[in-house]
Model the fold of this input.
Amino acid sequence: MEHLEHIWKKGKKFLGVKTPIIAGAMTWISDSQFVADVSNAGAFGCLAAGNMDPAMLDSEIKKTQKLTKNPFAVNLITIAPHYKNHLKIAAENKVPYIVFAGSFPRQPEIKTAKARNAISTPQIGSELRIVAVRALKNRGHDEFSDLQMDLIQKRRKDEISLAEAQYEVEKFWMGALRKAVIDGDVDFGSVMAGQSVGLVDKIRPLKDALVILIEEAEQELSKILESCKKS
Ligand SMILES: Cc1cc2nc3c(=O)[nH]c(=O)nc-3n(C[C@H](O)[C@H](O)[C@H](O)COP(=O)(O)O)c2cc1C
Done:
């Protein structure tokens, strides 16, 4: 662990955890239990606010705080319909870390989620703001493209306001993810998956996955340093 210990000193201090590995927020998956399990295992969990009803987010934050004494973040999607309420709730619950997604937050919003830093995911799209996500291609994927095209056409003909179009996009995206994750509809739901999905070969307990990640990172670092010494 000597190499890792050296390079993640800053991360440990910033996040206040033993293992500065962030479990990226996943809407409908990163709930209080999941986040507390990650944080109790020594890593850094992110509670996904997604499109939650604000009262549900409040309760999920309180549940997480009961299940773990270790640090965790709340992930807020800046273009979600309840975003402003989510931000208020996070501040009221004194959540020390907020990870923003969707767009760059404005300065007064950062002053509210006294956050020491904000991490924002990239955004794409000019006429409609779409959160950049990766999902396995399925029929739902095609439906989402159709919906965007339909909304853009309507916008161009001035048949719908930007706010209404934006709301439709959010509703579809959040609804589709829920369809896949909660209802198990992998054909029409949004089966979101990051690039690391290609490396998944086994279902493992969270603690084992962390140990493997750390061991492999240490081995890779040793290899890189060895080859640097040789060259
Ligand atoms: C099912 C699913 C839901 C996600 N929901 C969110 C979210 O609500 N907020 C967010 O910032 N990122 C979200 N992400 C993105 C992940 O946090 C992560 O950045 C992404 O999956 C890339 O990492 P990976 O390659 O290790 O999977 C989601 C990803 C997945 C797979």
Remarks:
- Residues 114-124 have pLDDT under 50 and may be disordered.
- Residues 206-230 form the longest helix (25 residues).
- Strands lie at 22-23, 44-48, 72-77, 97-101, 123-124, 130-131.
